What does this fold into?
Amino acid sequence: MGLGNYFKDIKAGLTSAFEGMSISLASLFVRPVTVQYPDVDVKSDEAMRENYNGPLRGMPDNYRGLLDVDLEICISCKLCEKACPIDCILIEDVKIDKKQIVGRNGKSTMKMKSPIQFDIDNSKCMFCGLCVDPCPTGAIVHTNEFEFNRSDRSQLISRFVKADDRAQLKVRGAEIAIEDAKAKAEKAAKKKAEAEAKAKEEEEASKDQSEAKGTKE
Amino acid sequence: MDILIQTIGDIINADLGSPLAAFIALLLVSLAILGFMSLTAGGLSFIERRVAGRMQSRIGPNRVGPQGILQFMADGLKCAQKEDLIPDGADRLLFKLAPVLCFIGVFGTFAVLPWGNGFFASELNVGLLYLMSVTSLVVIGMLMAGWSSNNKWSLLGGMRSAAQMVSYEIPVALSLLPVILLCGSLSFKELIGAQGAMPWDWNILNSPFTFISFFIFFLAALAEGNRTPFDIPEGESELVAGYCTEYSGLRFVFFFFAEWANLYVIGAVAAAVFLGGGHLPFGLESDIVSLLVFFAKSFFMVFIIIWLRWTLPRFRVDQMMTLCWKTLIPLSFVMLFGQAITLLIYHELTFLQSIVSLVLFAICVLVGVKFVSRVLVNIKEQKYKMMHTLTGS
It folds into this structure.
């Protein structure tokens, strides 16, 4: 604690305060980063460029917001339901008329089934993205929607299949089931008949053979 | 030309010279001061929040009124609507009295505070002494608030503020002494009158001793006004809000009102005593112009205080006491002694004063240039960082 230290301390205090003051004054002349959020649409780059002149840009493509399902290309394989670690996805499905669909990744697949119930409970969902990865057609995806406060907890469940569609699909599904059953029965009957015919043929053939043997003898 | 008391007094005295008329005149003057003080305190709260915002790369309040300028009115209204709570076990009388005392302590200073070269609410020949003594009421108010709240944090905050403000009143007074020696008066009118228009005619550049005295005064006044780096009585992270933890509604507003008004008081005293009042060179000086110049100077000081607050971290209690008792007080004694000797030397060699003043002015300019260059470098750096770290490009 000599006199030298005393003046050294004063000097250190003054110079560091000098530099600190210059930094904080400089920040007065730099644009604030703040986005005035409800005024500026933060989802897209274009809107951000228009209404905001800071350095930030719109939300990234890999943002994991609310889940969305494209029912047109969902083949109801239930891989997402199995992948979900907290079971917040519920799928029920029926058979439909077969049709060719093109997935989000460009591959075409035959769609045999369609969900009549596809519910995601957003109050449970933790937006891990594990359901998105296994989807073979890319039907389930994260959107960049992050505003989902609702007045009621039940409104947090997104139900992707509409009631009308469900009724229609159910009716058609029942018809298909009957048709299938019929077709199956027909097939079975046909098979049976075929089998019987074959058996008969074989029997006749063996008869013929034995007859031929008999004539030989 | 005590403009407020005399103009208002003249108007009424022309009609009747009774004590009632004097009372009415005083009432009008104090109402005018109250209006000025409320607007200043409110405006400063807005300015402080905007500056703080920009320094932290935010925007700050910008919703109420154009650019958020009416924010302080909204805040005041909100506080006025709040319930006036007095905690259980509090000393009710002291609890109610404390904010008023704090307020009076700051309000009283406006009686002598100059508003320009010839503008005073009242001309007091011991103006500086009165100002120093009336601000002591604030200490009592804070201690009272801390004690009467029946709350640990409040008590600690009150005790700390008492210790701090009592200690820092000494360097404030001592650092003003060299200037009083120089001007030979305690009245603000003569203190301003003794200074010239150009910077080297100001008291701050009279000698190296007044120059350092100014910084001692500034630091000590910051500490007395409870501003960061010395905001220990209300250090949020340690004491919640210090002595005003238990206050709500308008009583709370009174404390902050006093604090922001005190900010202006510090700026105005610095401008009047050290920075040459409202003088303007080249014959441009007039009453109104001196008013504007004086406001510009005091608000510049206020801006520096705000700027310091958002730059420097808070002192520890023991560091703060060390700074006061081991650095500022001895240093201000040295300055007082040095200034006394300097005055003797100046008396013999009159040309020396202008040389010293000019040299000091040149040093100030050099430091200013260096500072501006550092600021420019930092602006560039911050812009670069912002474009390259936040956008990831």
